[in-house]
Request: fold
Amino acid sequence: MIEHVYDTRMVAPAQGYSPSAAKPASVVAAWKKAFPDIASIPPDAATREDFERAHDPDYVRDVLAGALPNGFGTINPELTVTLPFTSGAMLTAARRAMATRRPVAAP
Reply:
C-alpha cells in the first residue's frame, strides 16, 4: 500500500509568484482518486531546529515572526503557519520511508 503524509494545515492561499502553497489539497485529492487505497499519515511539524539545519537561525526567526519574506516572497501569516507542516511532511515521509523501506509521498 502506498502512503502519503498530509494535513490540511499544509494548505494556504497561493502566494506571490507561485501557486504552490495551495497545491497540497488538490494533489492529495488526485492521489486518492487514482489510488483509492492510499493511506494518509499526519506530518510531525518541523521544529525551529529542523529549519536551522538548512537556514541561518536569524533568517528562520525573522521569517517565522513575519519580519522577512518567506520562500514565496511574501509576508503572510496564513502561509507562515503552514511552513512547519509542509516541511514536516517531507521530513516525516523521508523518515517513514527509511523506517519501512517502502515509498512514502508528500505533496
Summary: Residues 60 and 70 are 9 Å apart (CA to CA).
